Amino acid sequence: MADKPVPTDKKRVAPSGHPLAPLKRYTDARIGLGRFGAGLPTSAHLDFAEAHARARDAVHAEFDEAALETALADTGLPVVRVKSQAEDRATYLRRPDLGRKLSGDSAKFLTEMKEGDGYDIVIIISEGLSAHAVNTYGAETAKALIGDLPKDANIAPIVLASQGRVALSDPIGQALGAKLAVILIGERPGLSAADSLGAYLTYDPKPGRNDADRNCISNIRKGGISPEEAAKKIAWLTARAFELGLSGTKLKDDAEDQLEGGSQEALPEE
Amino acid sequence: MGQSEPLKTLLAKASPARSGDFLAEIAAESQEERVKAQRRLADTTLQDILDEPLIDPDEDEVSALIYAQHDGDAFAAISNWSVGEFREWLLSENATTDAISDLKWALTPEMVAAVSKIMRNQDLIAVARKRPVVSKFRTTVGLPGHLSVRIQPNHPTDDPKGVAASIVDGLQFGCGDAVIGINPATDSPAAMRRLLELIEELRLRLECPVQSCVLAHVTTAIDCMKRGAPVDLVFQSIAGSQKANSSFGINLAMLKEAREAALSLDRGTVGNNVMYFETGQGAALSADAHHGIDQQTMEARAYAVAREYEPLLVNTVVGFIGPEYLYDGKEIIRAGLEDHFCGKLLGVPMGVDVCYTNHAEADQDDMDNLLTLLGVAGVNFIMGVPGSDDIMLNYQSTSYHDAAYIREVLNLKAAPEFEDWMRRVGLFDETGHLLPQSHEDSARLLGKADLEAA
């Protein structure tokens, strides 16, 4: 500690007493950090490094499918695993197009699994850009949603889809003959939150759907929207989508009138 | 060049590796194939490049603009140079600042992109450094030995006090001499006007020579100007094809209309460069509007659009787009240097948003590297984001601290008008360097800014 460069000039004081400190209540921006020369104070430097490290770890964390299967066992629904065409994380990050397509084996598997005319709804869980988000909130959100759906809803087996993008819900929904697909997916981690889950809902899912055809509930996490709240909103949107026979921008406009703090226009998760 | 090989195929295969060109399935498939393409490109003449439009000018107004801009007389002296000879000339003593500048309208984006592909990072720096581009509004940006900074005080709800707090923080570091530029959370004339008036009041209270910009859509700015809002600079994102620009909801006529409206307000004091453009490799591909052209060449074509409207500022938001276009620190650094080089050779007042997202293989060290390289290359301006953390756009850019660092280590100055002001308010010493942190000076500036009035 003796080597710490304690300012000797009386004009230079510790960052904690920065005159901008009272203004921090108006913004989460990293203002009034203080400086040593041009450099950041050590604590501010390490605060940033920690936030970035958390985000990086979330991007590269393992999708814990086994734990999700265990957690979802008491739903009574079968849980199945599929893969996108992005075979590893590096490919996933470079080739979003492959993350939107089912691997050949997975497509065949789901098509063969389809029963009769298919299902009303399929719930898909994919790690997306934050496995931390789905590992933490995926099962809880899915279970709350199942509880909020009508009792007579014909729900497909829950699909765990690895290395998926939002649009992977299109070929999955189509293969199972689902009228509506909900994908719970890890959102791109930010410095303030690395474990934010997004839910994207698509009526009549099939390849070729785009963002305007979907509705999104984002920021599902501790400190954001709780899994229970999110589930209620998804269930409400689902009911309206079946009434209107569509999802996306038109449903969003309708929802804004009726649902306080309602849905958002679907934004790409990347 | 092989008779059967289209120029765009050659350019794509010769382009240094990056994920966006693989995504578009136009990149060389091996490193050796890439270097062999670079050899063929080096033997291609500038006339060959001029003779083969990458997109038919009858179908693409950006291509038509590129050919309309081209100065055949200035080009005559260099038309038979190969790309390889062009590279050697640029590096030679004969290529003085004046000699390179004289070629501004002789060079097309494709020629500049081509030569960049056979240059190392070192070459891109050495040549760009010889080609300053100066622009003016209330400050003079781009003078040799100077580096300006955009204060980027974004806030997720455009909270006026939150925005103002970030602005004052930036001013204390000597940032803001490029522009105080806010990405609004809401793109509407009312929201834009509120933010413009906030900056306007701050500027007048502090008697500070800066220009403001709210980075809303060009049509929002035109609407604002019609209603008498204090618009200094008009912003727009632009790209290198008509189709890509159309995906941004713009065309060239709209840019012209906006520029004329801003010029008519006559708000500049030392000059009247009234436009601010942003670009970035991958923008055209992400809009499926790249016409099979590699992303670096498409980016250079955006600069033809930019220079038509004599902007104050143009910056490439180099790492914002994500790893599917620029995968890691190495690709982001390379792209930043290429964009700066190509912009300068085409006479564009080039800045760089040195930045990355959390799913890219990059971190603060990579940004330090690129920032330092660009400082050496003579970049006109960089972004200043509080603590590098843009809480509205959710990405990381350079900070106020970073700006102070690069000015200090390379002895770069703020814009002269702004430097005078910083001295008057007691934040710079007599040589234009940041004085040691003083809470008294901070408090005085804060008092004068009177944020409670915001």
Topology:
The complex is a heterodimer of chains A (270) and B (454).
Chain A: H1 42-60, H2 65-72, E1 79-83, H3 89-94, H4 96-99, H5 104-113, E2 119-126, H6 131-148, E3 158-162, H7 169-176, E4 178-186, E5 197-203, E6 214-220, H8 227-244, H9 249-258, E7 264-265
Parallel strand pairs in A: 1-3, 2-3, 2-4
Antiparallel strand pairs in A: 4-5, 5-6, 6-7
Helix pairs in contact in A: 2-6, 5-7, 6-8
Chain B: H1 7-14, H2 19-23, H3 31-43, H4 46-51, H5 61-69, H6 72-76, H7 83-91, H8 97-101, H9 109-117, H10 121-128, E1 135-136, E2 140-141, E3 148-151, H11 160-171, E4 179-182, H12 189-206, E5 212-214, H13 218-226, E6 234-237, H14 242-247, H15 252-265, E7 275-279, H16 283-286, H17 295-308, E8 313-317, H18 329-345, E9 350-353, H19 364-377, E10 381-384, E11 389-390, E12 395-396, H20 400-410, H21 416-424, H22 439-449
Helix pairs in contact in B: 1-3, 5-17, 7-9, 9-17, 9-18, 10-18, 10-19, 12-13, 13-15, 17-18, 18-19, 19-20
Structure explained in plain terms:
- The complex is a heterodimer of chains A (270) and B (454).
- With 270 residues, chain A is an alpha/beta fold.
- Chain A has a single domain, classed as Rossmann fold (3-Layer(aba) Sandwich).
- Chain A has nine helices and seven strands.
- Chain A has helices spanning 42-60, 65-72, 89-94, 96-99, 104-113, 131-148, 169-176, 227-244, 249-258; strands at 79-83, 119-126, 158-162, 178-186, 197-203, 214-220, 264-265.
- In chain A, strands 1-3-2-4-5-6-7 form a seven-stranded mixed β-sheet, sandwiched between helices.
- Chain A starts with 41 loop residues before the first helix and ends in a 5-residue tail after the last strand.
- Residues 1-14 and 260-270 of chain A have low confidence and may be disordered.
- Chain B has 454 residues and is α/β, with parallel strands linked by helices.
- Chain B folds into two domains: 7-128, Orthogonal Bundle (Annexin V, domain 1), CATH 1.10.220; 135-424, Aldolase class I (TIM Barrel, Alpha-Beta Barrel), CATH 3.20.20.
- Helices cover 48% and strands 9% of the residues of chain B.
- Chain B has helices at residues 7-14, 19-23, 31-43, 46-51, 61-69, 72-76, 83-91, 97-101, 109-117, 121-128, 160-171, 189-206, 218-226, 242-247, 252-265, 283-286, 295-308, 329-345, 364-377, 400-410, 416-424, 439-449; strands at 135-136, 140-141, 148-151, 179-182, 212-214, 234-237, 275-279, 313-317, 350-353, 381-384, 389-390, 395-396.
- A four-stranded parallel β-sheet of chain B has the order 5-4-3-10. In chain B, strands 6-7-8-9 form a four-stranded parallel β-sheet. In chain B, strands 1-2 form a two-stranded antiparallel sheet.
- The radius of gyration of chain B is 21 Å and the shape is globular.
- Classes of the chains: A alpha/beta (270), B alpha/beta (454).
- Chains A and B meet through helix 1 of A and helix 2, helix 11, helix 20 and helix 22 of B.
- Chain B: Its main location: other.
- Chain B: Substrate binds at residues 150-152, 183, 278, 353.
- Chain B: Pathway: Amine and polyamine degradation; ethanolamine degradation.
